[in-house]
């Protein structure tokens, strides 16, 4: 037996075979973005299956004593010159024929081809064991190591991050038992037209009764007139097939009930019912997949935003590192590129997770973006972290960049409750002033926000005449059956959008405590504070009259500098009377039916015995949300009660306006009762939950406080208690029993949200743009201003921008101008 064989035998007990569910991280270092393609390759611990770059593997060995590692190196293959290319060294790009990424026929993700070599390396002497060496080793060694080599599955494959197939369709739930009417309808093989508008293309036949209608109107005015959709809304018949796409191999089938393209395993039978022989049909129209591919390649918005018509100069170095697209991850790439240009997120002392810190280092250090070589980083572990448990961000589907930004800010808030919080850079207070029009008395409330959402008043476009003329031509083309011409883009002044945000809003059903009745009121929204960094979302995505999602094709002259000083909240004015703090009438909730002042059992003599039945039921979900923000339970209950169960925004406004009240955290006392309601069934604490938390080393008082703050949900209570350790310092942590700290009522309520404030003058430093018809499809890129030069970050490509399309952005990022 050789020396290497003896060493392997001695460490055999530390070599594990991956079990189902184990991830073998063969693509990414746990502490950096080193990969098998990096210099030195990647070392995978044969016990934990974590990957380590050459800079970290020695440290891991010294700390754990683990000696056996898989050493994986990948070398890029040299591409042969293709006689059909133009001397660039790259084969000619094929036109996409499939709505997919990283799959044959789909959109190219520009993946390089590599040759992979795998060895076993034994530390500390780094002795190598090749696959040939294993053949001569004892069976027990060879089998254990070979199982690891064979069973190892890359985390990238587990997460399916390199591929996305938009053509995978599910069987419709209506297909098996679809009702078809015996109405004698037989469909001819050609000559179809819409039964409403006589349109002769984009036609859909309902599979229940055989009626033919035109399809949906597309965002640019082309397509149909929505008559097939309208017919479904009238009839409820769910499935329709697109005529012209029927071939022996299948057809486009849409389920209006499931709102998606679907499979119909009984399609030949369903078509035969109306006299259509699927085996003799030929394709005469583009499928929906082909139409969507055409949209994703269309000239216009895509070309302008990506600056495709220009020869862009590549950039590299610190802060100029690209991020690889992991399959519809461009929304994540764009948001994180912008966030890590903000000093609060660059600070190393920010208490975020290791993967976030690693991402920041990867983007800012320049280690993966050196002269002439934009390697870029693939944030696989980070994407898995931020998407864990989320129904959308855990998938490979396209997402809304605005929703992801707020999701990540929420993660930061949860992880930084006891330390430096970078999300404070965005946090600001909004003041809402409501004036009762009958009494002219006012009410002031404040709420926390992280983003300004600007409406887009389409009726105030500066090129309205051009838009109206285009609409007239479209209607003429529609009536004549001619193809419509391209619609012009609406030109909207930014000042108009800002004015729409700040103008007074009329409230028609406002309950006025001054007149003790519902009346009309006006609401004015202003900034109570100005954040260091201001995010503005242009509300481009909306719904048409038929509830079909659409994106507004608009150009907005967003300014480089912005002065919002005129929108500063002024607070209560001299001589202005406030609305009295009187509770609204008792709430009649569905689960508490109250009939008359006497209830169900009382009479005029003993009605007082049953008066507690008239107490309103509070919305537990709103109370719980407020408690999660760190406010006292009783204050949260009062906020929900005094705002009439009208939702989290109104309750939060009440909390912000009453935090200084001396009885802020005192128990809620309903009007007409002489004392606090005491312990109710909703306030009782499960003993098993208390015992679980106490077993972790916390006192009974601490466990009680955590459960009350999270509505008795154990998992949230555990998360809450570890996130509020600073708040619990006055309470001794013990193995059990009661703490030495005072009662909850004797402690000061926790402070409200911390906000920064300063002048309302800003300069634009970044914007994120979206291309496509919906937030659920298309592509995102971002432009960031670095050293007075605009830079475009298009996933892994980082270039100097020549014509930044500032008028077509979706999210705009401003920073405060310090004079």
UniProtKB/TrEMBL annotation:
Residues where substrate binds: 204, 216-219, 254, 256, 259
GO biological process, one term: proteolysis
Record key words, sorted: Hydrolase, Metal-binding, Protease, Repeat, Thiol protease, Ubl conjugation pathway, Zinc, Zinc-finger
Coiled coil is among the record's keywords: no
Domain UBA: start-end pairs: 617-658, 684-724
GO molecular function, one term: cysteine-type deubiquitinase activity
Domain of life: Eukaryota
Record InterPro entries: Papain-like_cys_pep_sf, Peptidase_C19_UCH, Ub_carboxyl-term_hydrolase, UBA, UBA-like_sf, Ubiquitinyl_hydrolase, UBP13_Znf-UBP_var, USP
Biased composition (Low complexity): 479-488
EC numbers, comma separated: 3.4.19.12
Residues binding Zn(2+), per UniProt: 194, 197, 214, 227
Annotated ranges, domain UBP-type: 170-278
Stored Pfam families: UBA, UCH, zf-UBP, zf-UBP_var
Catalytic function, reaction form: Thiol-dependent hydrolysis of ester, thioester, amide, peptide and isopeptide bonds formed by the C-terminal Gly of ubiquitin (a 76-residue protein attached to proteins as an intracellular targeting signal)
Active site per UniProt: 330 (nucleophile), 779 (proton acceptor)
Gene3D superfamilies from the UniProt entry: Cysteine proteinases, DNA helicase RuvA subunit, C-terminal domain, Zinc/RING finger domain, C3HC4 (zinc finger)
Domain USP positions: 321-817
Region (Disordered): 73-97, 465-488, 732-755
UniProt family annotation: Belongs to the peptidase C19 family.
The protein's name: Ubiquitin carboxyl-terminal hydrolase
Organism: Cyprinus carpio (Common carp)
């Amino acid at each position: 037996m050789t020396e290497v064989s003896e060493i392997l035998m001695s460490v055999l007990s530390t070599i594990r075979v991956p079990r189902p569910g184990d991830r073998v991280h063969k693509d990414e270092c746990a502490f950096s973005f080193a990969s098998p393609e990096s210099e030195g390759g990647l070392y995978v611990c044969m016990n934990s299956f974590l990957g380590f770059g050459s800079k970290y593997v020695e440290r891991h060995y010294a700390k754990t004593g683990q000696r056996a590692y898989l050493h994986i190196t990948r070398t890029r293959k040299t591409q042969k010159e293709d006689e059909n290319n133009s001397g660039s060294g790259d084969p000619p790009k094929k036109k996409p024929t499939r709505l997919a990424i990283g799959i044959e026929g789909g959109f190219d993700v520009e993946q390089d081809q590599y040759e992979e070599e795998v060895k076993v390396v034994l530390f500390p002497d780094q002795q190598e064991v090749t696959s040939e060496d294993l053949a001569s080793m004892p069976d027990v060694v060879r089998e254990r190591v070979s199982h690891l080599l064979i069973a190892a599955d890359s985390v990238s494959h587990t997460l399916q991050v390199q591929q996305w197939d938009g053509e995978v369709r599910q069987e419709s739930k209506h297909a098996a038992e679809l009702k078809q009417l015996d109405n004698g309808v037989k469909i001819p093989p050609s000559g179809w037209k819409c039964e409403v508008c006589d349109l002769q293309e984009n036609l859909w036949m309902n599979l229940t009764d055989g009626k033919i209608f035109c399809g949906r109107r597309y965002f640019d005015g082309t397509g149909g007139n929505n008559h097939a959709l309208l017919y479904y809304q009238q009839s409820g018949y769910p499935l329709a097939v697109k005529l012209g796409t029927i071939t022996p191999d299948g057809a486009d089938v849409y389920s209006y009930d499931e709102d998606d393209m679907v499979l119909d395993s009984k399609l030949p039978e369903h078509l035969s019912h109306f006299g259509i022989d699927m085996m003799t049909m030929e394709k005469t129209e583009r499928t929906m997949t082909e139409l969507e591919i055409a949209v994703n390649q269309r000239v216009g918005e895509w070309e302008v935003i990506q600056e495709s018509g220009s020869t862009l100069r590549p950039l590299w170095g610190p802060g100029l590192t690209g991020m690889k697209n992991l399959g519809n991850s461009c929304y994540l790439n764009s948001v994180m590129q912008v966030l890590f240009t903000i000093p609060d997120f660059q600070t190393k002392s920010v208490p975020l997770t290791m993967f976030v810190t690693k991402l920041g280092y990867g983007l800012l250090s320049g280690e993966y973006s050196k002269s002439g070589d934009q390697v870029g980083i693939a944030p696989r572990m980070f994407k898995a972290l931020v998407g864990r448990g989320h129904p959308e961000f855990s998938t490979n589907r396209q997402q809304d960049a605005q929703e992801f930004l707020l999701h990540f800010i929420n993660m930061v808030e949860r992880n930084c409750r006891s330390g430096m919080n970078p999300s404070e850079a965005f946090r600001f207070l909004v003041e809402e002033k409501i004036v009762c029009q009958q009494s002219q008395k006012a009410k002031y409330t404040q709420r926390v926000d992280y983003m300004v959402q600007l409406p887009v008043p389409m009726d105030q476009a500066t090129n309205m005449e051009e838009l109206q003329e285009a609409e007239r031509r479209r209607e003429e083309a529609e009536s004549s059956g001619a193809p419509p011409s391209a619609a012009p883009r609406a030109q909207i002044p930014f000042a108009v959008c800002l004015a729409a945000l700040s103008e007074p809003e009329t409230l028609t059903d406002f309950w006025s405590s001054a007149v003790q009745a519902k009346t009309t009121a006006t609401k004015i929204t202003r900034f109570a504070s100005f954040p260091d960094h201001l995010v503005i979302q242009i509300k481009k995505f909306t719904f048409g009259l038929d509830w079909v999602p659409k994106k507004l094709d608009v150009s907005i002259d967003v300014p480089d500098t912005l002065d919002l000083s005129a929108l500063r909240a002024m607070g209560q004015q001299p001589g202005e009377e406030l609305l009295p703090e009187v509770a609204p009438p008792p709430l009649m909730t569905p689960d508490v039916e109250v009939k008359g002042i006497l209830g169900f059992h009382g009479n005029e003599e003993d009605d007082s015995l049953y008066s507690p039945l008239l107490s309103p039921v509070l919305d537990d979900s709103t109370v719980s949300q407020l408690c999660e923000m760190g406010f006292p339970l009783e204050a949260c209950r009062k906020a929900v009660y005094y705002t009439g169960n009208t939702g989290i925004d109104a309750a939060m406004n009440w909390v912000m306006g009453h935090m200084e009240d001396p009885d802020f955290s005192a128990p809620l006392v309903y009007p007409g009762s002489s004392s606090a309601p005491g312990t109710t069934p909703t306030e009782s604490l499960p003993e098993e939950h208390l015992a679980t938390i106490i077993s972790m080393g916390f006192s009974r008082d601490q466990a009680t406080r955590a459960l009350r703050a999270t509505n008795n949900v154990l998992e949230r209570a555990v998360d809450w208690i570890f996130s509020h350790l600073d708040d619990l310092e006055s309470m001794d942590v013990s193995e059990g029993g009661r703490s030495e700290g005072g009662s909850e009522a004797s402690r000061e309520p926790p402070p409200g949200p911390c906000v920064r404030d300063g002048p309302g003058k800003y300069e634009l430093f970044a914007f994120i743009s979206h291309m496509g018809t919906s937030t659920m499809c298309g592509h995102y890129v971002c432009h960031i201003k670095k050293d007075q030069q605009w830079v475009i970050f298009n996933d892994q490509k980082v270039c100097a921008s020549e014509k930044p399309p500032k008028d077509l952005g979706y999210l705009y990022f401003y920073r405060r101008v310090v004079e």
